[in-house]
Design goal:
Trna Endonuclease, Chain: A, domain 1
Length: 123
């Protein structure tokens, strides 16, 4: 059973907005947000240095349940890989570009922290 604390969706949306601003400031070109298929979702699809970057954003209010990036487990990685493959197939880009998977971990505590893990995992 998945119990959610009220406001988690709002926290997630805020985290995604922070991540978008963070990436833009680092020179990333945002292509799409919240790309969805039946099998999963990718929070941010962007381009940086000729590489398509699929980004998962995890936001927490505190570290009580561990670091946000720890939530990107094997199951989540498989879903991201499947969803990214679908994205590349739909856009006819499967053999034309390099791609990678990044994670942005945000902690909204007394002091906000944003951690960008480039190339967080590989297929």
């Amino acid at each position: 059973m998945n119990l959610r604390v009220p406001g988690n969706k709002d926290l997630g949306r805020k985290g995604e907005r922070l991540a978008l601003d963070f990436l833009r400031k680092k020179g990333y070109r945002i292509i799409e947000t919240n790309y969805r298929t039946r099998r999963g979702e990718i929070d941010i699809v962007c381009e940086h240095g000729g590489c398509i970057v699929f980004v998962e954003v995890k936001t927490r209010r505190s570290l009580s349940f561990g670091n946000p990036e720890e939530a990107v487990n094997e199951r989540k990685r498989r879903k991201m890989l499947d969803t990214a493959s679908r994205y590349l197939l739909e856009r006819s880009r499967i053999d034309k570009v390099d791609c990678r998977f990044d994670v942005i971990a945000i902690v909204e505590g007394k002091r906000q922290t944003i951690t960008h893990i480039q190339d967080a995992f590989r297929p």
